[in-house]
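cron nightly-structures :: item 1 of 1
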Amino acid sequence: MRSFVTRMHAVRRLREGLLSRLRALPAAQRVHARVRRARYERRIQGFIADGSGRADRLPIGFVYEATMRCNLKCEFCYVGDLLNLEGEWRQELDAGRLRAAFPTGHALQVSLTGGEIFMRKDILEVMDVFREKGYACGYLTTNGTIIDEARANALADLALAGFLKHISVSIDGPGELHDLARGVKGTFERTAAGLGRLQAAARRKGAPLRVSINTTVTNEGLDALDQMVDVAEDLGVDAIGINHLMFSTPEEVADTVRLTGAADASLISTFVTPNPGVHVARVREQIARLQQKCRERRIRFDMRPKVQSAILEPYYTPGATLAGRCFYPFLHARVSFSGKLYFCPFIRIEVGDLTTSSLEEIWNSDRYVELRRRLLEERLFPVCRRCCKVELSPHPTPQPVAERLRVPRTIPMTVASD
């Protein structure tokens, strides 16, 4: 089995080396994007035509929530109510149990998130387990504050081996603004230092590691949003990702609980507020300024979800209906630190446990299939409208008059609970 995995890594490195050179050509990038999109649509149309809620035999990949511990206190973190649970770290699967829980011989893609994944002292051993299985790590997210020299070198080695592709570092503005958003003074300096160590290690080793910074749209940080370009340049980063604020109203949570058959509202993991108090005109203006500066300085730009200008107002209008679709649960598994599988990042209905069942058994289990079928019928559950995984229609949905007349108010956000 080890020789099979070694050959898989060698073939993957050769293939990706060739592809990376081709993708550097603009024409090749456009062709590749069209091919990928067409392949994706064919797969999606198959799920729609079938209508049963069954997926393929295995997912194309999974997100592993390596830990829910975190060293920061970010005010907008949608998993804030799950962080630092009393004693939860004792349930984190160690390397041996992870090795037994996940299948070998399937070229799955794993992505790592948390919490802050480097709060786990054995996180490099965890990544090595997935590397040995022949997986590729599409991305890992981190706040960067605890990337020391040893971790930076290890991450560069994992990139050099063809396992690690992309690291996304969370930054929410220059200096003090970032510290304020993250809830701990001195965070920006620590993040910049960790990022610098990582970049230096990748350069020394010639590792093909992509690094981007990401930020979240908040009312408090809007005035400095376009300054993220200056931050990226100062940090030597050429890619910026924007996360639109993700939230739901109490009514949307209640409707989702009813439609999914969830036990209660505590299984819905997002910010819950009657109104986020974000001024749409200012969001539109600042995102346009940010995009323009990115173009001028040749910095790549992306945002999640893809909120086009025409739907920006309903996106930030509490209770407004948005058209779209989500096939994340048909393609990707969401695995917790303890091996439990959840329907998706927001709807944390347990659909299986890798410590007692195989991934293949869980992937098309009755509960999973039923939830997918309901999602097909609804197209989107109410709390799905403002999730990073959703594919939103670029066209606005007609809203009732009462919705259009609402005036945004600044109201403190709360987290879903019973």
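cron nightly-structures :: done
The first strand starts at residue 61 and ends at 65.
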